Every structure is written in C-alpha cells, then in structure tokens.
Amino acid sequence: MAVDQLSRAFVALADPTRRDIVARLSVRDATVGELAESYTMSMQAVSKHLKVLEEAGLVSRSRDGQRRPCHLEPQVFELMTSWIERYRRQAEERFSRLDALLADLADETAPTDENDDNSDSDRPQQSEGVPS
C-alpha cells in the first residue's frame, strides 16, 4: 500500500545519517565502502543504514562485476513529493483566504479621506492670545 511505503520512507529519512547518505547518493552511486569512508562508523553500521533505506524503497543495490553500487530510486521520492505538495497547496489556499480576509478587514477599518479632512473640525478652536 502506498501509505505504508510513504510511512517507511519518512521513518527512514528521520535519521540524519540516512539523510546524508541519500544526499551523497543524489550526486553519484556509491558502494558501502565508499559511503563508509565519510563516516566514523563501521561498514556494518553504514550497511544497516542502507538496509533501512532499501526497505523503504529509497535505495537499491545493483551488481557491477565485483562492485555492488547503491543508487537512489526516484519513485518513492516522487510519492513523497506529491504527498507534500498536496498539503502545501492546501496550506497556500488557506493563507490566501486569510490574506483576503485581512485585506477586507483593513479596508473596513481604514479611515476615509472625508474623515481625514474633517478631523480638525471636531476639535474646539482656540482663540488667539489665549494660552493653551
């Protein structure tokens, strides 16, 4: 089910090391050993992180002779992007409605030009020579 895959993907990306691995693989494919060189952890630990990413469908491994390079799988990222985009659009629509409401309220409460011209006429006039 798509929701389960979506949940697994978000859970997998909750870890900063796995997000960094995804960032590295977005530049180029790499083996476990190549990825492990960038971290202060064992190859086994990096391999465990890759396994979580693989189970989420974010990464796959292929065989290239003796090498087993890891690479990103775009389908799950597309699923995540479309899910996020749907809620982003809804939030934008709500903010647009709020902006329109606030603009209407501002128009209703803004003083008109007529009130600005007559604002001095509401004050009592002082006679000349009378200190205030």
Write a structural description.
- A hairpin with an 8-residue loop joins β1 (59-61) and β2.
- The protein is elongated.
- It has 132 residues and is mainly alpha-helical.
- The protein contains six helices and two strands; from the N terminus they run ααααββαα.
- α1 (2-12) crosses α5.
Low-confidence stretches: none
Morphology: elongated
Order of helices and strands: HHHHEEHH
Query: Helix/strand/pairing class, anyone?
Result: mainly alpha
Largest sheet: 2 strands, antiparallel
Which band does the percent of strand residues land in? under 5%
Counted by DSSP, the helix tally is: 6
β-strand number: 2
Report strand order across the widest sheet.
1-2
Work out the radius of gyration: 31 Å
Helix content: 55-70%
Termini separation = 81 Å
Mean pLDDT: 85
Labels describing this entry:
two-stranded antiparallel ribbon, 6 helices, mainly alpha, elongated, 2 strands
Q: Could you give the topology of this structure?
A:
Elements: H1 2-12, H2 16-27, H3 32-36, H4 43-55, E1 59-61, E2 70-72, H5 74-109, H6 113-117
Antiparallel strand pairs: 1-2
Helix pairs in contact: 1-5
